TrEMBL record:
Function: A helicase/nuclease that prepares dsDNA breaks (DSB) for recombinational DNA repair. Binds to DSBs and unwinds DNA via a highly rapid and processive ATP-dependent bidirectional helicase activity. Unwinds dsDNA until it encounters a Chi (crossover hotspot instigator) sequence from the 3' direction. Cuts ssDNA a few nucleotides 3' to the Chi site. The properties and activities of the enzyme are changed at Chi. The Chi-altered holoenzyme produces a long 3'-ssDNA overhang and facilitates RecA-binding to the ssDNA for homologous DNA recombination and repair.
Family stated for the protein in its record: Belongs to the RecD family.
One GO-annotated biological process of the protein: double-strand break repair via homologous recombination
Cross-referenced SUPFAM superfamilies: P-loop containing nucleoside triphosphate hydrolases
EC number(s) stated in the UniProt entry for this protein: 5.6.2.3
Enzyme category, top tier: isomerase
Designated name of the protein: RecBCD enzyme subunit RecD
Subunit structure: Heterotrimer of RecB, RecC and RecD. All subunits contribute to DNA-binding.
Source organism of the structure: Segetibacter aerophilus
Name of the coding gene: recD
Note: In the RecBCD complex, RecB has a slow 3'-5' helicase, an exonuclease activity and loads RecA onto ssDNA, RecD has a fast 5'-3' helicase activity, while RecC stimulates the ATPase and processivity of the RecB helicase and contributes to recognition of the Chi site.
Residues the entry annotates as binding ATP: 168-175
Lineage: Bacteria, Pseudomonadati, Bacteroidota, Chitinophagia, Chitinophagales
Reactions that this protein is recorded to catalyse: ATP + H2O = ADP + phosphate + H(+)
Cellular component annotations (GO), alphabetically ordered: exodeoxyribonuclease V complex
Amino acid sequence: MQTLNNVHQQFAEFFKSETLKPFAFLVSKKLSEGHICIQVNDAALELEESAFFDAKTVFRNIAKLQEEPLVTTSNGPKQPFVLHNSRLYLQRYFNYETAILKRIKAFVESEKGLFEKRAQQLSSHAAFIRSLFNSAAANENALSGENIDWQLVAAISAVLNNFTIITGGPGTGKTTTVAKVLAILYTLNPDLKVALVAPTGKAAMRMAESLKSSSLNVASDIKEKLQAVTPATIHRLLKYVPDTPYFKHNKENPLNYDVVIVDESSMIDVALFAKLLDATGPETKLVLLGDRDQLASVEAGSLFGDLCRSQSALEFLSPERAAVINSFIAESERQLPPDYFLKSAPHLLSENIIELKKSHRFTSDKGIGKFSKAIIKNDLEGLKEYIENDQDEQVTIDTQYAPELFEKFVEGYAEYIREPDIKKALQKLGQLRVLCAVREGEQGLYSLNTAIENYLRKKKLLDKRSEYYENRPIIVTRNYYSLDLFNGDIGIIRADENGVLKAWFEDSNKELKSVLPGYIAESETVFAMTIHKSQGSEYDKVLVVLPDNTNVRILTRELLYTAVTRPKSKVIVQASEAVILQTAEGVVERASGIMERFDE
């Protein structure tokens, strides 16, 4: 920690002004923690225990900050720092935030003039649209007692809007909804150009696979179009220029797509999102998918969560929009009720953010569904119920870190090791995973991977004689564009027919491809992986191992929620009661001006 503080101190020392130095230190420190700005009024409190600065002096200097030559305002000359509404930014991050807000406002403004035309287009295909939702709506209503079909609301909104956010937990039907959105859009425009992207290659591929396996009852030509959509990472879509912060696609060279769909949007940092918006043409429709309760991006910003929190998702609709949505619902009891109508929307994005509320994967009264809900709501009694009662088939809490429980789970890796078919072995490897919060320490990534390797060697399942040993599972940790391999891709080391050890992966078409391990030097063993890396993936079973230490800053509600919602059928959590309860209380709150600046 002292080394990190020294980095921020060195940044502060770059500036001669004694008034500015503590604020520069704090901006640098907070940026490394994911904040894109600081609240200057909190600076003295933040620096109370600082070895470098006197908090009382910092407090007195708050009023002087606006007089600093290197501090400008939103409309002032370009300087390293921007002071805006008591928030201090580095100029670059203020520009990112400003550009994002400006582009979103332009999206929303441009869609107003298209509402009537799009509503008429939808009306002309009413029978087709109703056929897309009837069976799904009936199923959802039967399971939840919820009359409103939120997938229908989201799909119609996405067609009417130029900018749409669809948020929802695992299994709420985000991918199904997108398939229906595209089916409608392809019906309206058979020549539609669609980009399907995500922050990681794994997440993008999963989305494309879901579209390909969609069971929608649509014409064969539309089904073919859905299956033909090619996934990409955001970096690949924008055409990243290596060793620079730039992309080939930008405002001057925008993307040539009618629709851009972004999955796992909570993983996108503020800089990348600004560049994506910058490259999105004025006629392009943008749809963001994600779970607002999941972990935010590794880099600065929590943009998706900020946007979702900027107003309560779709609490109000204009009567005109509600009428369009209700026109596709025959039964009056399932139509949007009058309390969803409002003459003037209370917020710019009131009709652009839709939350899917019903999970088709988990039930809310037991198992992973109930457990994850208790985490998000910080329901301590509900969490204690799981900790003290080992009766749930889907959730097991082990507060003692029992070695036998760990070993029994790890034995599941024998399935892929014993599978001779490489493609099937990759699929079996993807059915389970050990997830951890940190990289160092007894419950960290390196120790866990070593422990798993040693146990499997003891069971004579592995023969580790070199770094790249037979059946070693690996995860790529950077993008290798020339190899079509991306950060987060997972493969297996196995010998080919000539006895040459290679790393084997599945491509976006589920076909095998192999590369020599030396070409992907930036890769790691992946029996265990960090929870951050697991975002955008799902497994059948997961073992979550948390540090036996409550003083780990990374332990947050969002981290635990993300971990326990990765599996479809079983989660085991090895952590003390104190760690679980304290983790559920810890909330990621990253400073930004997104929520407040919409009204500017």
